[in-house]
Design a protein that fits this description.
Elements (H helix, E strand, L loop, with lengths): L7 E9 L2 E10 L4 E6 L8 H11 L3 E9 L6 E5 L1 H18 L7 H5 L5 E5 L5 H70 L7 H14 L3 H18 L6 H22 L2 H21 L4
Parallel strand pairs: 3-4
Antiparallel strand pairs: 1-2, 2-4, 5-6
Helix pairs in contact: 1-4, 4-5, 4-6, 4-8, 6-7, 7-8
Amino acid sequence: MQIFSMTGYSRVEGEVGGTRMTIEVKSVNHKYLDYRLKLPRELNAFEAQLTELIRKECARGRVEAFVDYSSADRPVTVRWNEPLARGVLAALHAMRDELQLPGEPDLALLAAQKDVIVTDEKSAPGENEGQQLAALFLKALTGLKSMRAKEGAALVEDLTARLAQVEKWIGALEEKKAVVMAGIRERLNKRLKELLGPESRLEPDRLATEVAMIVDRADITEELVRFQSHLQQFRAVLTGEGPRGRKLDFLIQELFREINTTSNKSQDAGVSAIAVDIKTELEKIREQVQNLE
């Protein structure tokens, strides 16, 4: 029954292979699942594993994840490139002898040569470090989902209140329906009698049939029935399971369709005024629904 917003943020810190890692994950609205993962170069081997966790934990939204560490915390190894150093030294000796120069090459000169002194970062992470990283990454995603769940609960509360208001307005339309239809019928009868006059050859039964057809075209009963059916479906989806944003967005479109038809058919200012209020509230509901996963 838990429902998630698509907006959230999470930040965690932890050690992976002796290195202090920081993971940040944030998400915003998106029609589908769209993710971006930024890793340090030496962790690229775990990209597929981490993106699979994103796909598993998030159904929709634009998700951005950043994994980083402090360079001061990153273990390094400083070593000398022995084959290169010996080769450079031999070349310097050969140069001295060939040019008949005095002295011996010193350590500072030898160490200054390119790649003689090599700084290696920690060796490529292994399986154990991959498991540690995945666990820390999952912790960040869990924090993100926790925030998205809180946002989702707040959205459901707001949507429930707005649906209740819409249902009150629909109830008002139901109450007005009979009065509106009687008024239309009365106005049509009066107008037709004025136009046709006492000498009209139009039979009363034919007149009644024509009036009934016109009144039927203005009847909003079917639209109200369908509208209420869509509202029931909306509530059922809202309290259901799994991702629900797309289904709810579709139902909002159907609700708009029915209330627009109701407003157009009614030919009554009071009905049209209530329909405007309903459409305004539906627009607010649609904005909220677009935040849901």
